[in-house]
Amino acid sequence: MDNLVKILVVDGNVIHQEIIWRVAEEIADTEIVGVVSTCGLALSKLRSIETDLVLVDMKLASTDGFKIVKEVRENYPAVKIIMINCESEDDGTDFEKASRLGASDFLGTIRGDEKQFRALRLRFITMIAPIKSQKNFKLTSSPGIPRAVPLGNPVEPPNAQKKDLGSKKDQDDIILHKKESSKITLLLSRIDVVVIASSTGGPKSLEQVIPGLPANIGVPVFLVQHMPSHLTKSFIATLNSISDIQVVEAVDGDEIRSNIVYVAPGGKHMIVKSNPLFDNKKYIGLNEEPPENSVRPAADVLFRSVAHVYGGNILAVIMTGMGKDGVEGVRQMKKEGCFCLSQTEDTCVVYGMSRSMDEAGLSDEKVPLEQLAERIIYLVQQRLPQMKRS
Q1: Which residues have C-beta within 8 Å of that of residue 307, sequence separation ≥ 6?
Q2: What fold does the segment set 168-386 form as a domain?
Q3: d(CA 210, CA 364)
Q4: Residue ranges covered by each domain of the chain
Q5: Tens-digit pLDDT profile for residues 157-193
Q6: Do domains 5-140 and 168-386 have the same CATH topology?
Q7: What CATH superfamily is the domain 5-140?
Q8: Closest among 211, 204, 21, 195 to 117, alpha carbons compared
Q9: Which among 304, 306, 300, 294 is positioned nearest to 318, based on CA atoms?
Q10: pLDDT tens digits, 298-318
Q11: What is the pTM assigned to this prediction?
Q12: How far apart are CA 66 and CA 76, in angstroms?
């Protein structure tokens, strides 16, 4: 087995096919193994050729009820699916359907002008990087890869020193969470705010987390999901419709309240700010300042503002996605007082953002996707009756 990323293109537009072919030719370690014009032909190809990535035209997939996405995910779980030609407002709902069925990312309309070609090439490079890394890892690693640290076991940076729990009074000021293994995790004395960041694979994964949160969780929740502006409204509407907790798109100037999930709009950074003239009430802020980590909204931008305004008692949750967005923000929040959960590698669509937390020694616990909601609830509500909530 070689380490080339093998790509199958499913698009009936000849111009699109040629552009994608040109992009792939300019990127090392990639190979187009097939170009087909229908979803039926694509499924036939998959049975006969080794494939790592399938690019599927949104319109072709939607007219066939996204059958190809469902079948690829069920029969070829290691194959990544990226929807292409997602550009209009109408594509938002379709992408949500594709994402729930197993699509991990999307590309806008394929265009051939030089500026768009360069942008497509850069976007494509970031999308296939995790696949290349995984293939290289499989080629060079030996059997017996250690499993992720189980829930409840704190993740510590190398040479970390064990903290002395001190007196009983000191112990009363922290939360002790004991698992069946008798392992002990040290946490903050309380949680005032939850921040969540995700990217590739996030929409589908968040559908397993946000609906698991209660309507009366007791704190505000801020969510940054890397997603274009024309897709966020349908994503938020879907999330709100299946959740007990209220999920809204953040609006500039809105007063922040508990028991609401505020989602950053696509194309805008979300921050929190306070007004000392009005009893230090906290408000949403939105801006279109330059992207950070090549994205807008960026988790780092939100996290820095949360560190400044809340001054600690923060729970950060870093989920599936490529890149390192959130590392510097979590580092800043840690200086004030932050406990960080990172999604386990085996449950991530792309182990990038979580991996960056783990490797930087910023993750306090690695938690499987299916247990994230339960863990968030425990950490937030452990001492809820004794705490005043804003």
Answers
A1: 314, 329, 332, 333, 335, 336, 338
A2: Rossmann fold (3.40.50)
A3: 21
A4: 5-140, 168-386
A5: 333 333 333 433 333 333 333 332 222 234 577 899 9
A6: yes
A7: Response regulator (3.40.50.2300)
A8: 21
A9: 300
A10: 999 999 999 999 999 999 999
A11: 0.64
A12: 15
Q: How many residues does the chain have?
A: 390
Beta strand 246-249 pairing with 193-198: unpaired
Q: Residue 351: which of 28, 145, 125, 133 has the closest Cα? A: 133
Strands 365-367 and 338-343: parallel
Pair of tokens at residue 55: 């690019």
Structure tokens at 233: 């409204």
Q: Which two tokens stand for residue 18?
A: 């040629």
Give the span between the Cα atoms of 19 and 116, in whole angstroms.
10
Torsions phi, psi for 263 (to 5 deg): -105, 130
